[in-house]
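Hi R.,

Here's the chain you asked about this morning:
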Amino acid sequence: MLKTWRFAGVLLGVALVSTGCDKSGTTPPPGKPQDETYAKKLIGVWEGTDKVFGPVNVEFKADNGVAMTLGAKDKDPLQMTGTFKVVKEEGKTVTIETEVAPNIPGAKEKLEAKKKTSTVTFEDADNITLTIPGEEEPKKLKRKS
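And the predicted structure, written out as tokens:
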């Protein structure tokens, strides 16, 4: 009988420990509600300027879609669409993985999407710095909506 109780105690201990082991990247840090994470604050439209293209608009959507427009709307801007996912969040820095492809009007074939890992650093609730690998300068963006 004593062995049965020990065995039951061990099973209960294993069950309790295993339920506390889920450390998925989507859970917010302790004491921080899910809607207060910087990854959630990223959702929205951001705008800024680029030395080469001029105006820049980036929209991060709640369904993990992303849309970028580089250049003035009246001068045939470069538009790209795709997806993003949050890889990790450390303090005010969110690491995202994007997979976007340019949308070329009149192109016979859709261009292949490219995957990149970028970082977004929040200066405050309405200002971010987007650092994309391979680009000379980070983009300073301000929340539009």
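The chain has one domain: 34-143.

Let me know if you need anything else.
M.
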